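Suppose a colleague, Dr. K., hands you the sequence of a protein chain of 235 amino acids and asks what its three-dimensional shape might be. Before reaching for any lab equipment, you can write down a predicted structure in token form. Begin with the sequence itself:
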Amino acid sequence: MRYELYYWPEIQGRGEYVRLALEDAGADYVDAAREGNGTSAMMKLMDERRGTPPFAPPFLKAGKLVIGQTANILLYLGARHSLAPKTEAGKLWVHQLQLTIADFVLEIHDTHHPLGPSLYYEEQRAPAKKRTEEFWKERVPKYLGYFESLLEANGGSYVTGRRITYVDLSLFQIVEGLRYAFPKRMKAFEEDIPGLLALRDRVAARPNIKAYLASDRRIPFNDSGIFRYYRELDG
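The predicted structure, expressed as tokens, is then:
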């Protein structure tokens, strides 16, 4: 079966977590909105009100299934591509961790858009600076410290032990994104998360991920995605 991933064609965004899972699994998929009239097809699917229409991208077509929400898509793919534990408890645990990552991703976005996405960044510079200070003082240590402690407690190469899951791929993206958006702040913080940095390197060295990162399928970070670099927010 060939998967169809639907997400905005110019940004990594939330779709990147799904791309990383598909790429690591060596799955047959098409990044639909990046081809031909794919964006129009994506919008048409979201306008549909019969069946199980998605609210917003990313969503995945898998045969007759249309699955929305990043964590939900990864729950589905993880079970089918050995990127999640086999037990029900294990699957729910990894899903829970991915939902925690989703909360963190929203907080990352809100550093540059604390008043909402309908306003340009330039219209909310002062609130963004205040939000970013609180983010790095309180939220980054809380979230990354949590995942760092899981790596240490489980004593394995990955968050849940010796086998990789989609959560590890998502944490790779978190580290990469924070390095791009906040290079100075992240460099100063990295001494507190040696386990996550080692995990990042481990994921980057996986053959399929290494090939993906070197390909044009990997959309570069830019000033339209979740991770955005603004010098005044980087300390």
